[in-house]
Amino acid sequence: MSGMLRLGGLLLASLLIAGCGQTVTPAVPAAPTLSADQLADLNIVTGQLVFVPAYSEIVSDSSPNLRLSTTLAVHNTDTDDTIIIRSVRYYDTDGDLVREFIDTPIQLQPLATAGFFVPTDDTTGGWGANFLVEWVAEKPVYEPVIEAVMVSSRGTEGVSFISPGRVISEQQP
Q1: What is the model's pTM?
Q2: What is the pLDDT of residues 82-110, one digit of tens each?
Q3: Residues of the domain holding 115
Q4: Is residue 48 in some structural domain?
Q5: How many domains does the chain have?
C-alpha cells in the first residue's frame, strides 16, 4: 500500500510541476553512495543492464505534440539485501547520450526506491528517448522492478502510462 501511495505522490508531484511550467528536477533520494575504491572492493555476483523506453512527447493529431514528464523508478524488490545502482543514463531518439543521472554508484536498501525525473519542458530526449540502468549486487537477489512513468495534461485531459524495463544483458555468478 505504501508503494502505491508513493507512486500516487510521484504522479501528483509530476502533474503539479508540469502545471507550474517550472524546470525543477528533483534530486535522487538520499542514499548511501560508494566511492570507486569501495566499489572495487565489492564481490559482485549478479547484475543487469536494463533498457527502459521513455517518451518526452507523443505525436497526436492536434498540434503541438503532447509533451510528457518522465519519472524513472528503480524499486529494490529484495526484502533482505541491498543492490547497487552503478549508472542511470538517458538517451535521445538518435541513441545519443543526453544525461548521466548519477556520478557515484548508490546503494538501494531492501524495498527502497530511487527516482529520476525528466520535466515536461525537457524535450532533449525526443519521442523515442530511453534509459539504460545498470545495477549489481554482492549476493543473489530478486531482480529490481525498473519502469518509467510518463504523465501529461492539456486543458482538462490527462495522459499517463508506464513503460517497463527490459533486461538486455546479465552478469551471472
Answers
A1: 0.78
A2: 999 999 999 999 999 999 999 999 999 99
A3: 2-22+32-171
A4: yes
A5: 1
